[in-house]
Amino acid sequence: MRQLYLAAHDGALDAAIDTVISLDAATRHRLHRVLRLKVGTEVLVTDGRGGQRGCRWTGESLVALTETRRYQRGTGRVEIAAGLVKGARWDTLIEKCAEIGVDRIVPLALDRSVVRVAGGRASDKRERWQDLAVAALEQCGRTWITEVAGVESLAEWLGHEPHGSLRCYGEEAGGGPPLSDLLGGFAGPGVAIAIGPEGGFSDAER
């Protein structure tokens, strides 16, 4: 059954069974013209915050069919901070991270990054990247959405209070402990992993 993300419609998952859930024009257009849902199609609706319920598309609105189920978020939060890469590989990174349940993705502008995003273009890119995470959520059926942050430098990222108490980075030259060893027995609230761009981290960044 197809899943839809309707975070913009607060209360849609709190309404009683058989309630008609009104939709804005943009959402109606997407369901009718983009997804081409047939009248009477049953779908799952999620708010991206753990809630999910069954609904039926009427052609103009949704009708609540089932009670809302609430799924708890996993106990360990995962953040991936990745150096921007060219082309479809970045899109694929977002999609796959969202599908496996990464909580947050931070695009990094690093010394060896070929891709540079700044100004108004950065805002447009972030919106598009978040849309990719939404599409992945709908595709895989998860109920907790992956947040895509704005582009940051490595210094900016390191300056934030981490979501988890463990931070590590991938070293293409090897020599470090395997990630499985770092996580073995780790009982903190989460982990943040930094990944370099095509050319890896510079000596200064290491």
Q: Rough shape?
A: elongated
Poorly predicted runs: none
What's the total count of β strands? 12
What's the alpha carbon Rg, rounded to whole Å? 20 Å
DSSP helix count? 5
| Nearest-integer average pLDDT | 89
Strand content: 15-25%
- SS-based class: alpha/beta
Cα-to-Cα separation, first versus last residue: 46 Å
Helicity level, as a percent range? 25-40%
SSE run: EEHEEEEEHEHEEHEHE
The largest β sheet comes out as: 6 strands, mixed
Description of the molecule:
- The protein is 27% helix and 24% strand.
- The protein is α/β, with parallel strands linked by helices.
- Strands 1, 2, 3, 4, 5 and 6 form a 6-stranded mixed β-sheet that branches. Strands 7, 8, 9, 10, 11 and 12 form a 6-stranded parallel β-sheet that branches.
- Helix 2 packs across helix 3 (119-140).
- The termini are far apart.
